[in-house]
Design brief:
This protein starts with 7 loop residues before the first helix and ends with a helix. 75% of the residues lie in helices and 0% in strands. The chain contains 7 helices and no strands. It is globular.
């Protein structure tokens, strides 16, 4: 697995950490997005239907925010299941990156923001070890997404 820099032990502990937060994928995915929109309001501009929402409470109740939160967590979950198979991992990351780069034109810095918020939430809910186990995975994901963006001419 040439592209992946995680050992088998790191993969296992990352999966264990991820499972804890993925159990409540919709709620936790929503919490991550709400925090992103609240702390980085410019990220809302990409989501036309979230633009008018200012209160965190309103966002939390929104079906669209909840739906996208769940979608983000499902995508990461697919990646986490394929951390030990770089071909399968890239098969998930590549189309996702291309779509965000070319169709949605999302600034790639937002992937780092969202990953950092996931790590924060892991630390708050499950402690520093949980966060530490997952940190390498978020770096891996962000690195690959950034590479795809470069290939798409960003």
């Amino acid at each position: 697995s040439s592209t992946m820099s995680l050992s088998e032990a790191e993969v296992q502990s990352a999966r264990g950490a991820w499972e804890k937060i993925y159990v409540d994928a919709e709620d936790n995915g929503t919490a991550v997005l709400v925090r992103m929109f609240t702390e980085h309001p410019d990220t809302k501009t990409y989501f036309t239907h979230f633009k008018g929402m200012d209160s965190a409470e309103e966002m939390k109740q929104s079906d669209q925010v909840r739906g996208h939160g769940k979608k983000v967590f499902s995508a990461i979950n697919d990646m986490v299941q394929h951390l030990d198979n770089s071909e399968a991992f890239l098969g998930i990351v590549t189309p996702l990156g291309k779509k965000h780069a070319t169709q949605l034109k999302i600034d790639p810095k937002n992937f780092r923001i969202i990953c950092d918020i996931i790590l924060q939430l892991m630390e708050e809910k499950f402690g520093g070890d949980c966060k530490a186990s997952f940190e390498k995975v978020t770096n891996e994901i962000c690195t690959h997404l950034n590479n795809i963006y470069k290939e798409e001419g960003w």
